[in-house]
Amino acid sequence: MKNRTQNQNPGGLRNRRQIWRWSLPVLLLLFLSTLLWLPWQAQRMEANERQEQLIADTLWVEQTIRFQLSRDEESLDLVGSEITAGNLAGKKWQDRLTALLRNNRELDRIVWLDAAGNQIASTDHVPVRLADYSTQSQLAAQRARDTKTPQYSHPAPPPGLSGPMQMDYHVPLYIGDRYTGSLIASYLTSSILDQMVPWWFAQDNEIALTDSDDNTIDKRAAGGPGRSVYTHRRALDLPGAALTLRTNSVKNAPKLLPNLLVGSVIALSVGLLWSLGALWRDINRRLAAEGALRQQVSFRTAMENSLVTGLRARDLEGRVTYVNPAFCQMVGTQAEDLVGRLPPMPYWAPEAMAEYQQRFSEMLAGKVPQQGFETVFLRASGKRFPVLVFESPLLDDHGNQTGWMGSILDISDRKQIEDLNRQQQEKLQASARLASMGEIASTLAHELNQPLAAISSYTTGALNMINNSIEQHGSVDPEMLRLALEKASSQAQRAGHVIRSVHAFVKQREPAREPVTIAALIDNVIPLVELQARQFFVSIQTRIAPALPPVLADCVLLEQVLLNLTRNAIEAMQEVAPERRILRIVAALEPAAPATSVMISVIDRGHGIPDEVAARLFSPFFSTKAEGMGMGLNICRTAVEFHGGTLTHAGNPQGGTIFRFSLPAMPRNVPDAMTADAKSLFQ
Ligand code: ADP
Q: Is residue 37 part of a domain?
């Protein structure tokens, strides 16, 4: 069935859900971290790129400076050799070097000194001597002279001044081994940076010349100070001067959020995180709901499986939509064979098809008996069994009817118990009757004695008469004889009547209802009542209203009721004064009954019923009498209720007790089953 299919592999399903529950967030987190890693990686790549670019540019600048200085060196060396060769002096020297200075703006001044260090010629108007140069420069001059190779001086300010920083290129002039002087070309370090470094590079970087101890000699920061994020150093090794070119980019580290891409990545990530949270909450809610639902389903299934009541749901067309295991067990058919079927159903007994069909149409028309109905179902084995069926409408969430739900109770056991009860009740009634008989047996014997004695004396008298008549007259007077025999016959009939009524009363039998007139009922029972009444000197008065309708009843049961009530009444009057010992039996129409009923009252003037006795009056085996069985009133009530009537009691205003029982009168439309005899009663 559906539930079973759903629960086939609940563990596997749960595991898959759990895996899904955990893997989804993990995947999303991975995706998220990739999203966050991307801009970080992009930033790092950009930083690397900038650094590499700076290195390349620094290298390029260093090469440019070195190239320019080499070109200057070559020109100066050439000038030096021309001087020593004596080809360059006076105005010629001046023109040549002025042109050199004009073309190479990084050069500040070129001076020609003699061997004593005095100026021979200069591009500058201010005369100068070697002693006017900085110590560093003089040291370089000495080195150049010693090594006979041109030397750079370490940059230094002119003596006595703090700036500008000046670097001199000393070219020693030798003619043969004779030192004849030197050519000194002076560079201002600021000019080197200004003239040799291209403007676009200077715009993006702070460029500095430093010494070997990293002290800044000069720097150019056209684009502002360097941020020390991207820096590079490059050695600028010149003969005699060890300089370093240091570049420091003015650019900051690339920002993490520089552009739209990163912004959108962040926004996306935030959105993703939010949706992840929402998804997580939703999954949790769903799982919780599913868990609760599963519990509900298993609870419902367990409940349905443990039910002994059969459940059967049908849609509005009467098609079976659901049956529970109890129902399947009851009818001995599989659920698959029932679900989806329209009537006639396999559990309908063929002989009652018409009844089922009619009830089914009534149900479809919405006519459902509130109190349920009894019917018979057919088990697959062919066995019939009684069931009690309750139908109620099935409503959906909006209160619309979607079908019918029936609960079916197998009442075989109940029926058996009822049968057993009935049988026991009948046996009990029979025993009670026998007990009553035991009590009246002695009276009966005494009573039978009378007619028997009378018969005996009549027949003896008749015999004597025959003998005497024959002796005296030779013939018998037939009239006298007939009279005696008639009396004997009537006495014999009386005795027979008593014996028959006792026999009918005691005989065990099935209750059988037949139309009974109240007068006949009372007449039947009076001989037996009289037997007891006479014993206790009680007089009986009967009053039967004229034209009472008959009742449909079991005569013997009602006689038993009357006999019990009258016996109790007689016994209750044992102790009262003889003139009060009157038993009245009154039959009349019940005044206030909705349907016509006949009321029979047994009225005594005995000791009455105290409250504590009244409370237990109808309890089985309750008796205040030494010999009492305590079953009389209980049986009476059962018998009266069996006939659809009620048995009540009340105090007699004149003293004593009144027991009343009502019996529904027979309806005017006589059922077909009624005997012709009975019908004649109503005509
Ligand atoms: P039993 O007659 O064997 O005692 P019943 O069931 O017939 O059993 O009566 C139960 C009790 O009810 C009696 O013992 C008696 O005390 C009381 N009872 C019944 N009928 C009368 C009556 N007419 N007047 C007074 N008491 C009565």
A: no
Strands 539-544 and 582-589: parallel
Q: Where residue 503 sits, what CATH number does that domain have?
A: 1.10.287.130
Q: Are residues 419 and 381 in the same domain?
A: no
The response to whether residue 570 sits with its C-beta less than 6 Å from ligand 1 reads no
613 close to ligand 1 (CB < 6 Angstrom)? yes
**How would residue 631 be classed by pLDDT, with cut points 50, 70 and 90?**
confident
> What does the pLDDT average to over 591-597?
72
Q: Specify if 441 maps to a domain.
A: yes
Angle at 681 between CA 678 and CA 683, to 5 degrees: 120
Residues 162 and 124 placed together within one structural domain of the fold: yes
Q: Among the atoms of ligand 1, which is closest to the Cα of residue 635?
A: 6
**What is the reported pLDDT for 7?**
46
Which residue has the least CA distance to atom 16 on ligand 1?
624
Q: In the listed set 212, 228, 249, which residue is the last one of a domain according to the structure? A: 249
Same domain, yes or no: 374 and 428:
no
Query: Cβ contacts of residue 494 below 8 Å, gap of 6+?
Result: 451
Q: Please, what is the average pLDDT of the chain?
A: 84
Angle 289-294-296 from CA coordinates, rounded to 5°: 95
391 and 427 together in one domain: no
Residue nearest to atom 19 of ligand 1 (CA): 568
Task: Give 630: exposed, middle or buried? Use CB within 10 Å, 0-12, 13-18, 19+.
Answer: middle
Domain edge (last residue) among 410, 425, 449: 410
How far, in Å, from the CA of 570 to the mean position of ligand 1? Answer: 10
Of 27, 529, 626, whose CA–CA distance to 276 is shortest?
Answer: 27
Locus of tokens 């039910």: 307
Q: Is the CB of 465 under 6 A from ligand 1?
A: no
- Segment among 152-156, 271-275, 432-436, 507-511 with least mean pLDDT: 507-511
In a domain, 221, yes or no: yes
Q: pLDDT band at 560, cuts 50/70/90?
A: confident
Q: How far is CA 256 from the centre of its chain?
A: 49
Total structural domains in the chain? 4
Which residue minimizes the CA distance to atom 4 of ligand 1? 623
> Do both 561 and 597 map to the same domain?
yes
- Tokens coding 80: 């030096």
- Ligand 1 close to Cβ of residue 606 (< 6 A): yes
Cα 311 to Cα 387: distance, rounded to the nearest angstrom: 12
77 and 208 together in one domain? yes
Mark whether 223 and 107 lie in a shared domain: yes
Considering only residues 442 and 183, tell me which one the structure prediction assigns the higher pLDDT.
Answer: 183
Lowest mean pLDDT among 91-95, 373-377, 384-388, 624-628: 624-628
Residue 233 is part of a domain; what is its CATH number? 3.30.450.20
Residue 119 CB–ligand 1 contact under 6 Å: no
- What pLDDT score was predicted for residue 32? 77
Domain of 604 in residue numbering reads as 511-682
Ligand 1 mean position, distance from CA 673 (Å): 38
Q: What is the pLDDT of residue 449?
A: 66
Mean pLDDT computed over 173-196: 92
Indicate the pTM of the whole model: 0.42
Q: Of 568, 609, 625, 654, which is best to mutate to test ligand 1, by the most ligand atoms within 8 angstroms of its C-beta?
A: 568
Q: How far away, in angstroms, is 611 Cα from ligand 1 center?
A: 13
Please check whether residues 88 and 214 belong to one and the same domain.
Answer: yes
Percent of the chain at pLDDT > 90 equals 35
Is 259 a domain residue? Answer: no
CA 458 to centroid of chain Cα atoms: 97
Q: Is 632 in the pocket of ligand 1 (CB under 6 A)?
A: yes
Pocket residue to mutate for ligand 1, from 573, 633, 640, most atoms within 8 A of Cβ: 633
